[in-house]
Amino acid sequence: MSKFTADFETNVDENDCRVWAYALCEIGNTNNFIYGNSIDDFIKWCSNPNENNVLYFHNLKFDGEYIFSYLLNNGFKCIKNKKERSDKTFTTLISDRGQFYSIEIFFKVGNKKVNKVTIYDSLKILNFSVDMIAKDFNLPIRKLEIDYKDFREKGHILTEKEIEYIKNDVEIMARALEIMFNENLTKMTIGSDALHNYKEINKN
After folding, report:
1. What's the distance, Cα to Cα, between the start and end of the chain in Å?
2. What is the C-alpha separation between 168 and 142, in angstroms, rounded?
3. How far apart are CA 193 and CA 177, in angstroms?
4. What is the pLDDT of residue 112?
5. What pLDDT sits at residue 132?
6. How far is Cα 91 from Cα 71, in angstroms, rounded to an integer?
7. What does each C-alpha distance from 122 to 20, 127, 133 come to in angstroms?
8. What is the 3-state secondary structure (H, E, C) of the chain?
9. Contact indicator for 53, 42 with CB cutoff of 8 Å
10. Residue 185 confidence (pLDDT)
C-alpha cells in the first residue's frame, strides 16, 4: 500500500462541470508522478487489483463531489456499513455539517482479498492553502498559476504549463505530508493527532 496526494482540475462552466485533469504524487517518492485528462482514467488507476492505495485530496469536499457523481453514474452503491461491502460499493464519512473526512471505494471484494482505495482530506491535517503550505514549510517549489477560464474540450491534451502546474500542487502536498508523517502525525485530522499526543504525554 502506497500513499499519494491527489488533485483534480475542473471546468468553471456550470453547464459543463467535469474533470479535465487529475494528478497523483507518491508521498515519500515525489518522482512517482502520475497524471491524466479524465476522471474515468483516475478511477481506473484507483481500481488497480494489485494495490490498495491511500489518497489525500486537499479539500475533499470539492473533489469528492466529482467522485460521487462518477460512482453513482457508473453502477456503484453507497453503503452505510462496511460489512455490506461488495463489488462496486463505497462508504463515506461526512459530518452533519457537511465536512468531508473520507471516502472508501471497494472495487472487488473476495473471500481473502479486497481491492479498494481510501481517500482522505489533507485540509483536515493542514488547514492552509497550497500556496501558503509551500511557503510555510519552506519547500523548494511553489504553487504556479494557470488560466482556469480557458476552454478545454473533452480529451484536452495537457500543455507543459498545465502539467507543471498540477504537478507542483500535488508535489507540494506530498512533501508537506511527508514531513507531518515523519513527525508521527498520522491521524485523519490534526485534532486527532493533538489528542493522541496529549494522551501519550499524560498517560504516566
Report:
1. 34
2. 7
3. 13
4. 83
5. 96
6. 11
7. 22, 8, 12
8. CCEEEEEEEECCCCCCCCEEEEEEEECCEEEEEEEECCHHHHHHHHCCCCCCCEEEECCHHHHHHHHHHHHHCCCCEECCCHHHCCCCEEEEEECCCCCEEEEEEEEEECCCCEEEEEEEEHHHCCCCCHHHHHHHCCCCCCCCCCCCCCCCCCCCCCCHHHHHHHHHHHHHHHHHHHHHHHCCCCCCCHHHHHHHHHHHHHCC
9. no
10. 60
Q: Which residues contact residue 119 at a Cβ distance below 8 angstroms, ignoring those fewer than 6 apart?
A: 6, 54, 55, 56, 57, 60, 64, 67, 102, 103, 104, 105
CA-CA distances (angstroms) from residue 179 to 29, 37, 45, 118, 171?
13, 29, 26, 21, 12
- Amino acid (1-letter code) at residue 77: K
Task: Pull the grid cell for residue 72.
Answer: 453513482
Q: What does the buried/exposed string (b/e) look like for 134-169 if buried means 16 or more CB atoms within 10 Å of the residue's CB?
A: beeeebeeebeeeeeeeebeeebebeeebeebbbbb
pLDDT tens across 78-120, in order? 999 888 999 999 999 998 888 889 999 999 998 788 999 999 9
